[in-house]
Structures are given as structure tokens and as C-alpha cells.
Amino acid sequence: MKKLLKVHKKKKKKKVLTAMILILIFSMALGSFIFVDRKIKPVVQAIAESKAQELANRSINKAVGEILKGKIKYEELISLKTDVDGNVTMIQANTICTKPLKIGNKCYML
User: pLDDT tens digits, residue range 63-86?
Assistant: First the structure.
């Protein structure tokens, strides 16, 4: 009978030890996950904001390009200055373009 109780106690100790090890492993995994999440979250958020800004810029550029296609010539936006030999000395942007850009109900000056 005593031998049977000793075997039972050893099995119970083994089960308790196994349970404690599993709880420790789970706690360490959870702690690691929380630590990594707190360290990586700001980086991932910054990358997401950057990608969203890039997507918005691409969409706006595409829409403006489609609206302006065939309506404004390069010569209206940029003027080239040359010297007497015909070499380009300056490229100047026409910042006061008189043609408005209409998007929806709003007009914008280029």
C-alpha cells in the first residue's frame, strides 16, 4: 500500500511540475509577444502612414494628369532660356499659369 502511495505521489509531482513548466512557457511567450508588439507597433504604424500618403499622392497625381492631358502644353509650364549659341542656360517654371484646374466644383490655379 505504501509503495502504491509513493508511486501516486511521484506521478502527482510530475503532473504539477509539468503544469508549472507549461504555465511558465505560456507566460514567457505572452510576455515576449507583448514586448515585441510594443516595440514594433510604432514602426509598423509609421510605415502604414507612409504607404497611405504615397497612395494618396499617386491617386492625386493620376487624377490631375488625366484632367490636364491634352489641355496644357509643356511650353506653357516651362520656359527655356538659351544663349546666343543655342545652349540652354536656364529652365524656368511658369508659376503664374493662367489656366485654372477644375476638380469637381472647385477651381485651382496652377
Answer: 877 877 777 777 777 888 889 898
- Is there a contact between 91 and 80 (Cβ–Cβ < 8 Å)? yes
Calpha distance 13→24 (Å, rounded): 16
Cα–Cα distance, 97 to 109 (Å, whole number): 7
Q: Which residue has the cell 509643356?
A: 74
Instruction: Indicate the pairing of strand 106-109 with strand 88-93.
Output: unpaired
What's the confidence (pLDDT) of residue 59? 92
Helix, strand, coil: what percent of the chain each, to 5?
65, 15, 20
Q: Report the predicted TM-score, pTM, of the whole model to 2 decimal places.
A: 0.45
Q: Using CA atoms, how far apart are residues 33 and 56, in angstroms rounded to an integer?
A: 33
The C-alpha atoms of residue 103 and residue 60 are separated, in whole angstroms, by: 11
- Separation of CA 13 from chain center: 52
